[in-house]
Amino acid sequence: MACRRGALIVLEGVDRAGKTTQCKKLVQALQQSGQRAEMLRFPDRTTEIGQLINSYLEKKSDLEDHTIHLLFSANRWEQVPLIKEKLEQGVHLIVDRYAFSGVAFTSAKPGMSVDWCKFPDVGLPKPDLVLFLQLSPTEAARRGQFGVERYENTDFQKAVQARFQQLMRDRSVNWEVIDACRSVEDLHKEIKSRSKAAMDTAACQPIGEL
Ligand code: DGP
Ligand code: NA
Ligand code: NA
Fold first, then answer.
1. Near ion ligand 3, which residues have CB within 5 Å?
2. Is the ipTM beyond the 0.90 threshold?
């Protein structure tokens, strides 16, 4: 196979770290430099499963903790054929949240173990790079009020942050931590240069599995 598959790059972090803004800017910058790049986001609220998740996040429905976890995972699995196809065509995929959010958010709930939470996502395409946008609770608070969705409160977000720290010790995943407490442009520059390195490395490697 020619050395030119696309890279799978994931942005993770607690809510309000700037993931969505940075994903969009990175895709735009790559496209402007003549590369093929597309953004994905999880949860993808547009599918049938995504609509169940959306209703849960908007607190219009309640679902048992294991059940909603499996739906979030299924919502990633349903995009796997598309993800593989795009990467093989040489398209870079920039992803707003992935399986790591799944594990961090669900395992922050009482009685949900990290090991159980990881299992449904085993076998998903492995990201070539996971950029973790680090934001202190103080800076997060400075960015304004939380919204009204489920999980959007300070105590839960602190628990999520702790779970992310634990997940980042897994050396089988290519984590890079970035300080998100600075201007949008500075952050963008750093994300761009770190992504470039990951794209060069990914080009000649097969797609891995989580
Ligand atoms: P947003 O990224 O703004 O669309 O918000 C999605 C919310 O859902 C956010 O609070 C993080 C949470 N979330 C994302 N993925 C998962 C997952 O797989 N499991 C659980 N329990 N929560 C998730
Ligand atoms: Na959110
Ligand atoms: Na976001």
1. 20
2. yes
Q: Could you list the pLDDT tens digit for every one of the 210 residues in the chain?
A: 457 899 999 999 988 899 999 999 999 999 999 999 999 999 999 999 999 999 999 999 999 999 999 999 999 999 999 999 999 999 999 999 999 999 999 999 999 999 999 999 999 999 999 999 999 877 887 888 788 899 998 899 999 999 999 999 999 999 999 999 999 999 999 999 999 999 999 999 999 999
Number of Cβ atoms within 10 Å of the Cβ of 174:
17
Give the ligand at the shortest distance from the Cα of 45: 1
Task: Give the ligand whose atoms come closest to the C-alpha of residue 23.
Answer: 3
Identify how many contiguous H helices and E strands the chain contains and give both numbers: 9, 5
> Following DSSP, what letter does each residue of 54-79 receive, concatenated?
HHHHTTSS---HHHHHHHHHHHHHTT
